[in-house]
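Residues determine shape. We examine one folded chain.
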Amino acid sequence: MQAVVISAPGTLVVESFPDPVAKPGEVLVELKAAALNRRDLGVCKGTSPLPLPLVLGSDGAGIRRDTGEEVVILPSIAWGEREAAPGPAFRILGGADNGTCAELIAIPEENLFPKPKRLSWEEAAAFPLAALTAWRALFTKGGVQSGSTVVILGAGSGVSTFAVQLAVQAGARVLVTSSTQAKIDRALALGASAGVSYLEGDWAAGILELTGGAGADVVIDSVGATWPDSLRCLRKGGRLVVFGATGGDLVEVSARALFFSQLEIRGTTMGSPREFAALLGGIESGSWAPVIDSVRPLAETAAMLARLESAEQFGKLVLTV
């Protein structure tokens, strides 16, 4: 088969790779499309030690070779039975397991779900990792419901485009931050109520102004270094939900401000099979669709990763197989 292979840290090639062999409990899937995530940049660079060679990719959709069913792949491998956190065997598809940027993949049958009928192959491949991350952050960890005010940092990323739409579908008021007015405007088109630029002055003050000084119920933060400002945006009793550290993983916050305002900081990553099933139900009953920045063939994966690293995209980067 043809696959996107990391042969050494920093070395990515599209080449012939041995066809996978399904082990007991696994199924072969003929992939139709795959999608990239920010974690793929770290996998390519060797940020975490992984066995090489490795096929890149966490997101994908395709056809079961045994039954002919159209399926979408859940990238949470061996989550376990606890909803509070994954078990010790948990891992994300695409490191150390071979991933989705290939013509074939062997995947545990429990990680296969029916492809949403109203989505194209490209849309189906685009949503699993990012939309599941957004779902768990918003609802399981953030407790977002109709009438909540939610702040989503970094409009334009894959997760943020899903988070905006999912929160709006739930009846929440959504505020966003971004580096450009163009991305804020696109978030508004997805249903956000307003946004502020984090490059122009005190963005946390801007968010507080938009809430009339009351603050938000929930802030969804993937940056890390922004925690102090994110906490300033919250009303008393609010929640800061964190799923990334793209701006740095060391941060200093005021313990006194935290306990006097009864604030909560909750970490999250990915989600369970039960949450994925709930997400799929929301897709089938809703009208929103994954936002796709661009679609290219597997052969152009390196160019797509460069676009991802530059943060120029708005939405997901999808590869056709």
In short: The two ends are 11 Å apart (CA to CA). The first helix runs from residue 38 to 45.
